[in-house]
Amino acid sequence: MWPFWWKGPSGFSPRSTAEQVTQGIDATGLTAIVTGASSGIGTETTRVLAFRGAHVVMAVRNVESGRKVKEEILKEFPTAKIDVMHLDLISMESVRKFASEFISLGLPLNLLVNNAGIMAAPFMLSQDNIEMQFATNHVGHFLLTDLVLDTMKKTALESDREGRIVILSSEAHRFTYSEGIRFDKINDESGYNSIWAYGQSKLANVLHANELTRRLKEEGVNITANSLHPGAIMTNLLRFHSVINSVVTMVGRFALKNVQQGAATTCYVALHPQVKGVSGEYFMDSNLSKASSLAKDAELAKKLWDFSLSLTNPNSEPANMGFFGKKGPSGFSSSSTAEEVTEGIDGSGLTAIVTGASSGIGTETARVLALRGVHVVMAVRNVDSGNKVREEILKEIPSAKVEVMELDLCSMSSVREFASKYNSSGFPLNILINNAGIMASPYLLSKDNIELQFATNYLSHFLLTNLLMDNLKNTARESNREGRIVNLSSSAHRHPFPGGIRFDTINDEAGYGSIKAYGQSKLATLLHANELARRFKEEGVNITANSLHPGGIHTNLFRYHTVLSGFASTVGRFMFKTVPQGAATTCYVALHPQVNGVSGKYFEDCNISKSSAYGQDAELAKKLWDFSLPLTNP
């Protein structure tokens, strides 16, 4: 810590105020969320950000108090743009509601200031049965950040302005339990110490910022994440500890910062150009500082991330796979198999098309649907391979009804020929599973001169779906049974090119990246399902359309990428699903009664999941539809 009057390398000192460290900075056009904005340094942070032109969303537990703060700021700055929204970090339900309401507003998000906190509280549990300080100071903010991160990524991409996540930690992060984070005893009341528990939560804040930084850098996202110690300020943080409260009341005017000084480092890290591109650092007194050795432990940060995911998202799969078998609301998990998720379901009388059914999860999907009584049409590029799969299925299930028809998704002519033959066969169509795909291929063009991954994974399925649509609609109407379209996307949809879909440069070889091109195609697959769902609802048609991530499965999808293939071969048995597990979500979405009437959703591990911000962009979905029509119907 710099002596109170000495300036550090930034030119600022402990006595610098929030207004001083942001002097001359124009934040017009930026949108910020500030948690805990109804008191203390949260209020001053809000005031100064608004003063500099930022649109500030005050995320507060007490909305009435928040509105009073807003009124006071507007008296001082009549042109300030401030909104007040309810957020109680003690409740994950409240966090999810806040994030959902914020996202639905359609606002951008440039700055996220995780400011709210409690200090030295007696042992209590949150509404989600997690120790109160850890829940409020870290877990609630971890979940909030996760929920709004896609909005931040989208904003950073579209505005070409760096996003910043600012997490308020404390020098108390140095004074925690001996192990740093008590993962196995987070709720252990017998060993609880209010000061160490506070230190634990503040250590978690630093680690969170550091791990965010690592992940954002890996993704190449223009967002930074930093943590800071605001300084010792006499605020209502101290309300739970009478001894500390008494001491600071007596000596505070000599040893503590005022609120204006306390908010300075937050505002500096949030707005100052000196901090541009700086990420994963710890700040104090508006200068870079040095965190504890535990705070710099990268493995501890990763472990905390996985632990936090398990607390905030029961359906998640941490990297260490410790929660691989944890069941979600559907009653199924990532370890469930296709047979398990369809047990007891009678698919008799249904007819399904499965593309790419001659290998991998396509084969298992065809097998399990046939096992449940569905008449399956295997749409395959290699008919000989398809016939061999059919023979194997018939050996196991002699009564199975399985057909094999040729379909090459690299060729629109082949798609049209397949659809024509199918429609003329007189078969009904209840279920269409757009499963086939290729992954991370080198730059190639399809037979129709369209980038190969986009053509195969998305565009040909778009055409196929359109050509079979009348059959699907007629079948749904005549059978009075819901039709289902199942599009296999991937979590890779989160990592496309900037902007999501390269409409103007879809065939641009110079800017081609095989992984991003795969992500683009899988984003398109997801958007296709969403736009289909919207159109079906408008028409009142009894057909649903959903997309899904099957999970990491070592199949021949990897054949084009030697690094991915080698990685999968080496560690796949520890990190990847088996093929029966990989086909589970497809079969669940295709057959399970829990999915009746559900449309326009994204599934993972046989549970509804959350797609990226691009994946939820209705305008992007419409634009993609309009872009695809002329490509498939010149």
Automatic annotation (TrEMBL):
Pfam families named in the record: adh_short (PF00106)
Gene3D superfamilies tied to this protein: NAD(P)-binding Rossmann-like Domain
Family annotation (InterPro entries): NAD(P)-bd_dom_sf (IPR036291), SDR_fam (IPR002347), TIC32 (IPR055280)
PANTHER family assigned: SHORT-CHAIN DEHYDROGENASE TIC 32, CHLOROPLASTIC-LIKE
Protein name (record): Short-chain dehydrogenase TIC 32, chloroplastic-like
UniProt source species: Populus alba
Lineage of the organism: Eukaryota, Viridiplantae, Streptophyta, Embryophyta, Tracheophyta
